[in-house]
TrEMBL record:
Keyword presence, Zinc-finger: no
Molecular functions (GO terms): GTP binding; translation initiation factor activity
Organism of this sequence: Hirondellea gigas
Domain of life: Eukaryota
Keywords, in A-Z order: GTP-binding, Initiation factor, Nucleotide-binding, Protein biosynthesis
Keyword Ligase set for record: no
GO cellular component: cytosol
Domain Translation initiation factor IF- per the UniProt entry, residue ranges: 1-40
Protein name listed in UniProt: Translation initiation factor IF-2
Length: 119
């Protein structure tokens, strides 16, 4: 029963896997007051898990295509794991999160896909 709290940092993939195997919760925030509140709640024994992150995989954005009616489309390569069409994703640039939300759609080449694995 342990919690790792981080301010303005993101855990590495290896750290997330190790924490998941050990049953350790990792919480991060870019707002210091949220971290302080989590510490106070943990010390008083009132800290309930808000959500659990499950590592599914890692993708690398190779190219961004701009489509006028749709918006931006990211051409990606799955480097590790498996990505599902309804996955919650985070996009990091230089270890700074620039997007956190649901994947809008998933395609393999031009066909819709429910999941895409490495390769």
């Amino acid at each position: 029963n342990a919690i790792i709290l981080g301010f303005n940092v993101r855990p590495t993939t290896k750290a997330m896997r190790n924490a998941d195997k050990a049953g350790v919760e990792i919480r991060t925030s870019s707002i210091i007051y949220q971290i302080v509140e989590d510490i106070e709640d943990a010390l008083s024994g009132m800290l309930d898990p808000e959500y659990k992150e499950v590592y599914l995989g890692r993708i690398e954005i190779k190219k961004i295509f701009k489509v006028s009616k749709i918006g931006n489309i990211a051409g990606c390569y799955v480097e590790d794991g498996k990505i599902f069409a309804d996955s919650q994703i985070r996009i990091l640039r230089n270890s700074v999160m620039i997007y956190d939300g649901e994947l809008a759609s998933l395609k393999r080449y031009q066909d819709d896909a429910k999941e895409v694995i490495v390769g």
